[in-house]
Write a structure and sequence with these properties.
There is one protein chain. By secondary structure, the protein is of the alpha+beta class. The chain has 2 domains: 265 residues, no CATH class; 81 residues, no CATH class. It is built from 15 helices and 7 strands. Strands 3-2-1-5-4 form a 5-stranded antiparallel β-sheet. A two-stranded antiparallel ribbon has the order 6-7. A hairpin with an 8-residue loop joins β4 and β5.
Length: 388
């Protein structure tokens, strides 16, 4: 298949996901299922406020479009608001996965007064069943205008509602006692959203009536052979995120909160991973949270009294003290051995190669005693010939 044909087969719209095994395809990008839903939990309140400012401007146009009123005067403001919104989204996962240049080009093309008039005409004909099928293509830009306006106008509010509903569930699934498997998540889901759960107005974000499903054979990014995928089309970002969240749970994928930066990241196995792979905030060495977390874990292990390297050291100290008490080891020589043992233990804690190599052998009683005698003799010899 030619490259352009392959790209055409992957042509997905703004709110369409292809599900295959434990991955999704969104805007020609293959991602683990749950990625979009997890990233949506991290959108900050400050970003939501900036988005909402643009939403309010776009909603003025949306209201007039839906009412069939002349909205010509609003277009400069609404068009600028939509482009500003797109700029915000381009820097905000999961929206940054979108094909930003494509959508910018579309917004610049369809946000016109002429398309507003065409949409009113289209809506009237659609409602009165007087729209011939062959005329539908000429309203494509007008329908796209209404589509972008509706999606952008509601985005900040609906995303905030998504976070309110899902953050609590995510926190519960993040507990240390949680079974982070598909079966464990199913149990949690069943208790959190019981079978008698009703889709009332307050739970409208849970609605399953805002998507359509089809099965298509398509070639995934980076592959050459077509796969049969489940393609789902949504009418809102929130519907898409919610679906991605729950489909992720089905395969054992779920959000986890990083213990260093506090952001949510996606886990794809049952391990209780504590740290994400993003850069740690404020770290001058530009290390990731995972790198810092591993260092902290190592430091905690090193400080622990039951650390294997420390146990070897403690065992040797006990033996040295026992020999001194019995009178079979000179007290001065014992002090040299103790200092040597401590130095070697500290070296082993900071040098993995040494810890796995010569450490245990050098910490044997006979080896320590021999090295301590050499040091003591060198010291005494130096004093006798004036070198010390």
């Amino acid at each position: 298949m030619k490259k352009q044909d392959r790209r055409a087969s992957m042509n997905q719209e703004l709110m369409t996901l292809d599900f295959w095994q434990d991955t999704i395809i969104y805007e020609d990008k293959a991602l683990p299922i749950g990625t979009l839903a997890c990233d949506a939990l991290n959108v900050s309140a400050d970003t939501l406020a900036k988005m909402n400012e643009q939403c309010q401007k776009i909603n003025l146009l949306l209201g007039m479009l839906n009412a069939g009123q002349d909205a010509s005067a609003l277009f400069p403001m609404a068009r600028e608001a939509a482009l500003t919104m797109l700029e915000i989204l381009s820097k905000t996962p999961p929206f940054s996965y979108m094909d930003i240049p494509k959508h910018r080009e579309r917004i610049e093309k369809v946000f016109t007064a002429d398309n507003a008039l065409k949409y009113v005409e289209f809506a009237i004909k659609a409602v009165t069943n007087s729209l011939p099928f062959e005329e539908v293509p000429k309203y494509a830009d007008a329908v796209m205008l209404q589509r972008y306006t509706a999606v952008c106008g509601h985005l900040a509010y609906s995303l905030e509602e998504y976070q309110k509903a899902m953050l609590d569930f995510a926190e519960k699934s993040d507990g240390n006692e949680a079974d982070r498997t598909a079966e464990g998540f199913a149990k949690m889901f069943g208790s959190y959203f019981p079978p008698k759960f009703s889709i009332t107005e307050g739970n409208a974000w849970m609605s399953v009536a805002n998507n359509s499903v089809q099965y298509v054979a398509t070639i995934r990014p980076g592959e050459d052979i077509a796969k049969l995928v489940k393609r789902m089309h949504y009418v809102s970002f929130v519907g898409m995120f919610r679906s991605d969240f729950f489909e992720g749970l089905c395969v054992g994928h779920a959000p986890k909160k990083c213990r260093i930066c506090g952001k949510w990241f996606l886990t794809t196995n049952a391990r209780h991973t504590k740290y994400c792979g993003g850069y740690a905030p404020g770290d001058k060495l530009h290390r990731t949270c995972r790198q810092i977390g591993n260092l902290k874990g190592r430091e905690q292990r090193e400080l622990a009294d039951d650390h294997p390297l420390k146990q070897i050291y403690e065992k040797r100290l006990n033996t040295i003290n026992r020999y001194v008490k019995r009178g079979t080891l000179d007290a001065d020589l014992a002090e040299v051995m103790k200092k040597l043992a401590k130095d070697k233990m500290l070296r082993a804690l900071s040098n993995v190669a040494y810890a796995k190599g010569d450490y245990e052998k050098e910490m044997e009683q006979a080896a320590l005693k021999k090295e301590a005698k050499t040091i003591k003799q060198t010291y005494i010899g130096g004093m006798c010939d004036g070198r010390i």
